[in-house]
Amino acid sequence: MPKTILITGGAGFIGSHCAALLLREGYAVRALDNLDAQIHGHERRPPAYLDRRVELITGDIRSPQTVRRALADVDAVIHLAARVGVGQSMYEVADYTDVNARGTAILLEAMVERTKERPFSRLVVASSMSVYGEGLYRSSDGTVMSLVERDAGRLKSGLWEPIGDDGQALQPLATPETKTLSMGSVYALSKYDQERLCLLVGGAYDIPTVALRFFNVYGPNQALSNPYTGVLAIFGARLLNERPPLIFEDGEQSRDFVYVSDIAEACRLSLTADAAVGRALNIGSGRRVTIKQVARALAGALCVSIEPEIIGECRMGDVRHCFPDISEARAALGYQPQVSFDEGIGKLVDWLDGRVAIDRVSEALAALSSRGLTV
Ligand code: UD1
Hints:
Layout: E1 4-8, H1 13-24, E2 28-33, H2 37-40, E3 55-58, H3 64-71, E4 76-79, H4 86-89, H5 93-115, E5 122-128, E6 136-138, E7 144-145, H6 152-156, E8 171-173, H7 186-204, E9 209-214, E10 216-218, H8 231-240, E11 246-247, E12 254-255, E13 257-259, H9 260-270, E14 280-283, E15 289-290, H10 291-301, E16 309-310, H11 327-333, H12 341-352, H13 361-370
Helix pairs in contact: 1-9, 3-5, 5-7, 8-10
The structure holds uridine-diphosphate-N-acetylglucosamine.
């Protein structure tokens, strides 16, 4: 009998890639997904990209009855169901908190109940780099700084780089899991809730649990018409509509973009790697790129000569630099990112080719600035 894995949020971007990989590796896959209209459109049909062999249960993670049904006979759970969008979380506060934190609590209560009859071999939960806030920095005198925040007054003057006490710009460093956490948005706080709830309840009830702190994930199946999604899908939607990508700040802010198949592999490895149990691990590509580089690389790969537009505003809660030290994941999981940034952009562009995207970026920006959520 193949092992059966339940993926919550299994019809989503990351979930669909996990499902495809697990099926290839001989697992059976069940997905629990509410087919959220913001991602799947108002018809809320199962997405065409989802492998037909996935048993899809359409329902809400906050429904104890549905969750109990989804858990029946599964060996392990990969918990990806969440509302995702930093800006939107700052005004849909109750809903983000409810789906992400209470939804996880309901899943855990149902898992605890089920362990009495049959234990789970694993719970893998998707946490996020957002729990760090700003990444790690070093000041000009060599001091490593773990809790950097940007000053609102400086941001208002277009001074984007965080500075040290001596007024000098700080040097960004790769962020390890030990960095002091600093949640700067409702989304970040709700991801932290998910991470801790799973590790804490998992630890108390002998459900071997692994939390993965994903960095900026991109690739095929990312919702192109969702303006709250990741920057690469947003830039893709803009360029497909022959509009310039809108760059916040000055475009020199940096991230680590990790291709979605590497994320799926990290989830797969977490199902069996015992050294990862009880821990929260960074999952990234190991390479840092600026947002300006991202916009140019995507336009170049799409063969369009549309220069990005630097709007010189900042989203409240955005961090300047955050990219991971992935050595713990390499050691504990045997994780080894396979897809380079250039290769990943190429694959993304192959997928974008011929696609229709509704560009709602201006609407989303207006929603933020009307609430005073841009600087
Ligand atoms: C955030 C979360 C991350 C989460 C992801 C989901 C933080 C620190 N990180 O990442 O955990 O998984 O959202 O989407 O909260 N940008 C533009 N123009 C745009 C859109 C974005 O310039 O149209 C810039 C942003 O200002 C930011 C960078 O691109 O500097 C990346 O933005 P985004 O893709 O939204 O991800 P993060 O905010 O890094």
